Structure formats: structure tokens, C-alpha cells
What we know:
Elements lengths: L7 E4 L6 E2 L2 E4 L4 E5 L1 H4 L6 E3 L16 E7 L10 E6 L26 E6 L3 E18 L2 E11 L11 E3 L5 E8 L4 E5 H8 L2 E2 L1
Antiparallel strand pairs: 1-2, 1-5, 3-4, 3-14, 4-7, 5-6, 6-7, 8-9, 9-10, 10-13, 11-12, 12-13
Amino acid sequence: RPLVAGTSIDSDEGLGTGTAGCFVSNGRGLHILTNAHVVGNRQGAKVFQPGLLDDRTPIDRKPIGKVTKGYFPRRSFGMMDAALVSVDENIFGLAIPMIGPVMGVNSKPRPGTILRKFGRTTMYTEARLYATMTDTFVIYPDGVQRVRGMIMAGPMSAPGDSGSLILDDQNKAVALLFAGSNKVTIAIPIQRVLDKLRVRIL
Length: 202
């Protein structure tokens, strides 16, 4: 089973099936970048691909890796919902389906920029960037959380797309998708994620 960014993953510790955003490195090994609410934040939690909702043989599930680090909004002053998953098997390729390889980071995207992503549920979608550094509220199982300094874009996701990497039209990473509705998409600025987790995108 090849590991491909943009595809279905989950964990026994997460809140449901989500998306493997992209591959990153901390200088010591390869990791998948996704959301903490997809895989949890407990070190050592097993991660599976595909996620349970997409697995036709769920009885004998074999993990592809384990969580090494994760942060929820409540534990990061509303700034983060991100996690790293160490990869146990060889990656198939670094290109994101229908988008291609990541060509760097856009840490200062401008409102009006066309953004795109490939995720588990809605696959390839595009939307326009509405605003940066936006504060808003997101519903979690343990209550409503205020999140701060987020990217806000038009609707481009559905449940299961959490963890998707959002890029601009130059294939530069912009944000990590973690919430949305039929009106907006909420994502964490990618440079903040990379700095907090101390990784770089491959």
C-alpha cells in the first residue's frame, strides 16, 4: 500500500478519519503532517491508512506509523491543531495528487489568492483566500474553542478533509486545513505549524 499525501488516515486516539497533509522531515526521519484532532496527540498512538471509514478489511488493521507530537487549540492558546506521524514504511512519492510536489512556503499570502488542496473527502478543490490572521470559534467534542490568527478562505472542504495541505497556484504551501463549513474554510498558517513542530516540508 503506497503512502500518498492527500489520502485517508486515522488513529485510535483521534476524532475520526482525516487526511495525510504532506510529508515532512525533522532531520531525523520522515513524518506525515496532519491535524491533532485526526490522530490525537498521545506519543506512540498508532496511525492507520486508509482510515477506518475507508478500510474494507478493518479486522486486521496494520499501522503505518505512530504519533510523535501533537497540539490541540486548548493546549496552544488557540494557535494550533497539528500533529506529526512517524512513517514506518517507504513513501511512494512526494507529489500531492492533482497538484504535484510542494515548491516551498508562502508565509505572506494575499487576500484574493486562489488556494487549492487535495483531501480525503472532496479531493481536489479551490477557493479564494478571504483573510489572514483571523480569530474565530471552532466546535470540538469538549466544547467551543477560540482559535487565533487563522487563514480564512471560501468553502473547499467537508468532514474528512481535515489535515489537508492548502497551497497557492505556485504550489507553495500556505496553510494546514482543520475546520470548515459550507461557507468558509479555516486553516493554520503553515509557517507557524512548521516552526512549532520544527520540521520542513519535503
